[in-house]
Amino acid sequence: MFQEVKLTDHIYYVGVNDRRTALFENLWPLERGVAYNSYIIDDEKVTLIDTVEIGYIDKFLSKIRAAIGDKPIDYLIINHMEPDHAGSVKILSELYPDMKLVGNKKTRPMVEGFFGITDKFKEVGEGDSLVLGHHQLQFFMVPMVHWPETMVTYNPEHKILFSADAFGSFGTLDGGIFDDELDIEYFIDEMRRYYSNIVGKYGNPVQKALSKLSGLEIKTIAATHGPILRENIERIVTLYDKWSKYEAEENGVVIAYASMYGHTEEMAEVIARELALNGVKQIRIYDVSKTHASYIISDIFKYKGVILGSPTYSNELHPNMESLVNKLENMGVKNHLLGTFGSFTWSGAAVKRLDTFAEKMGWEVVGESVEEKHALKDEKYNACLNLARGMAGKLS
Ligand SMILES: Cc1cc2nc3c(=O)[nH]c(=O)nc-3n(C[C@H](O)[C@H](O)[C@H](O)COP(=O)(O)O)c2cc1C
User: Is the minimum distance from the CB of 319 to ligand 1 under 6 angstroms?
Assistant: First the structure.
């Protein structure tokens, strides 16, 4: 039994919290859990908007029944087919056999492919409206935010945007469900980590979606993860605009390094100290073997400067650094300042690979890369200082 949560007199929040799953998509740590948000509109046509991960079906159904009792559901709006939201579609469509599944032309083959359902699909297109009685829903396609079929649903009467994964966040809703009921600062980092790692590759589609939706008057954003936004809409949309243009929020520096025996780490510390002596206050050092890449990538979206270091490992980058640069290349992150360093014992290859990374990314290189053979000695120590000064100079 749960308290009912209402966005309006007839629109209910029926989402659930997941504090059990360790890795989202079996990849991203969920230290603060995650919420799967779903909404139901109790009108002449009862309409559910998105579902939840299948493991939470019991709790989900009890919330649905608390909101609408034994009434049938007429429509299920499928904004996004990823299984954390569409996971309960099949079972719901068995429980509510007359329920129409509403999606677009790219949703249709996914519904057929995943669930074998062909006869209950109602296709909607860009700008189409669906009248539920007193409520209307309008649909806007936002392809590749972050799947091809993704769309958002707008309710003009209450100016609510059901935004799928856009504006979502990791983190369970611990009592507070609306942003004015909770400490939004607690969620901003997890919102950035969610955005950068899950949606970050799709900056252009997000920009297109933002400009498409900019014409709507929005008073509430109801995403499929994270708090329902009423108070911080402008702030979060501004952050999304920045993130999707790969514009950093702050002039800090992320130093990410790999190190087996401490030589590369020593160079990282020297660079960091010199950055601080040159006025850089926001310095975040990460050992890529200790900190999950999702946190490092999130901070790379936040800070303008990036300095990467690695020892040579079997004629390549240390594997954990290779994994990080590979992710960044795949995402096509733009608009950063870069410095690189590393160490080797017989034939260096790490810094060469980091230089290739620099070329691929097109980031502005702030100084010569530093590669030391064996322990750190005067010449390369000074080169580390110069690299730090180069970065600090560009940031000031
Ligand atoms: C498993 C392993 C593989 C290595 N492969 C190479 C290599 O291919 N070329 C090279 O010059 N040094 C290689 N090294 C030596 C390290 O790159 C070198 O000692 C470096 O300074 C280690 O940095 P660290 O102290 O930060 O771990 C290797 C070391 C280890 C342990």
Answer: no
